Amino acid sequence: MNFKSLRIKIIGSVVLSSFLLSNGSLPVRADEVSIQNLLRNRIESAGKPAKIFVDQEPVYSAIVLPIFYERRVYRPGWDSEAGLSPRIESLLEFIRQAEQHGLRSADYHLAKIEMILSDLARIQESRQPPNPRLLVDLDLLLSDAFLILGSHLLAGRIDPQTVDPQWHVNRREGDLAELLATAIDSNQVGDALRSLLPAQPEYEQLTAALARYRTITENGGWPAVAAGPKLQQGDRGPRVAALKQRLALENFLENVSPTDEDLFDDDVDQALRKFQMQNGLEVDGVLGRQTLQALNISAQARVRQLLVNLERWRWLPRYLGPRYLLVNIAGFHLEVVENSQLVMEMRVIAGRPYRQTPVFSGSMTYLVFNPSWTVPDKIARKDILPKIKKDPAFAVKQKIKVFKGWGASTVAIDPLEMDWRAVSAHNFRYRFKQDPGPLNALGRVKFMFPNQFDVYLHDTPARELFGKTRRDFSSGCIRIEKPLELTEYLLQNHPDWTPAKIRSTLEADLPVEQTVKLPAPVPVHILYWTVWIGKDGQIYFGQDIYGRDKVLDAALKQPPPGA
Length: 563
Prior knowledge:
It contains 18 helices and 23 strands. The protein has 563 residues and is of the alpha+beta class. The longest helix has 24 residues, at 132-155. It folds into three domains: 3-197, no CATH class; 222-297, Muramoyl-pentapeptide Carboxypeptidase, domain 1; 317-378 and 420-549, L,D-transpeptidase catalytic domain-like. Residues 1-29 have low confidence and may be disordered. The strands form seven sheets. It has an eight-stranded mixed β-barrel. Strands 13-16-14-15 form a four-stranded antiparallel β-sheet. The chain has a two-stranded antiparallel ribbon with strand order 1-4. Helix content is 36%, strand content 18%.
């Protein structure tokens, strides 16, 4: 069978494919039946899951790729009656753009595909029919490239639970074999891949930030500011000059005057405060130890941080809901979003590093006014028991009741009559329950979205902790800054709960525990981002409080897993 001509342009080291019809026809491939049989034999003999290599290069999509070819009865996917398809160039163009999304073009057989295309161009010039096995190799690599890249865009390059056992968000799913077939039939390969990208504007903003920080890195990054005493407005010296240069390179400072390049003036003060705000630091305009440490994080390290967080975006569900709560653990921040608009935000307190808040999505269905607190056994043994052993009156002062036994055999015990010296974390057989009221650890209200981790949002009497910049003080649950405002928002359409009734219930002299069902469930997404885009459109860097970035970054450097 004869097919139309294939023209390959080679610009530099990159092979650009251009597939044009001409008046003459050239035998650019073998008979389709022959290729079809070769594909079938190659895949059927590869086992399950398939182990296929092109020379020494593995085909990664061991499960989905055979499904794709089985559905099309092993017909090749990347040729046409006019010869090799222009769909190839659409795919290659997208692969070359993979770096923009924090992925690696090399993971998708780019060099090997370009080498085969170059070989085919030389064969065409000799007017000889190509080896059909070469065309089979090309078809397999192109299909695998689409499927692997598609899987990375759809659900992330790394399975989150292999690197982060605390990540339990439902990832996006799709039939990639069907998507590839549709993309080929409709000649919409690029559009099909683009449809898999996270739709939220924050993702696109992070890709723009990645490009900016890569440019800074390629231009040499920024210089480190030398260690030394604190610097603040009015100071002078070479360290101030280095500070100004550093702030300017990240666009925090403009118009550096050469006549006062070593003066810590008002412009530097304002620029440093902005830097501190966008890096989760105390905003005081003083170059102290923590600010110096953040300033001296390299531009390359920021690039790696962006790559890690772009990957986390690809782990999220496609649709977060028309109205939802989003908690960023590492940013100590909560947002309420309705119809894509931010309607409320507040600071939060997350779990300590040794009692980490997990990442998951839930559905808030009810809240509890004036909650009592049945102390979890682990907290009872490790936190409350030592305080009671030191001072048995602690339980009385904090309105904590002590119980022994369960169900009908439960017995209340006077903590002042107990010999706590004989009780340890190992032989502890008691339960603690704190009464509702102003001392209760859960505050005036808790917000419930039932989950396997027994994690929820709640008020807290320790209001002073919200003034800290790093707020990882809880035992896993999330304490919120504005419980009353959130309550009124969630119950705004509840006919029985006006703002006045909510306030009177929470301010009662004799608080009574009361459960209130929400008018409609509200999705809650608890996430872990160390880089995010603020409502002002600026990029913010947080601390990796749980050490998760380093593990994920190492995984991203490994060869790609299968689709």
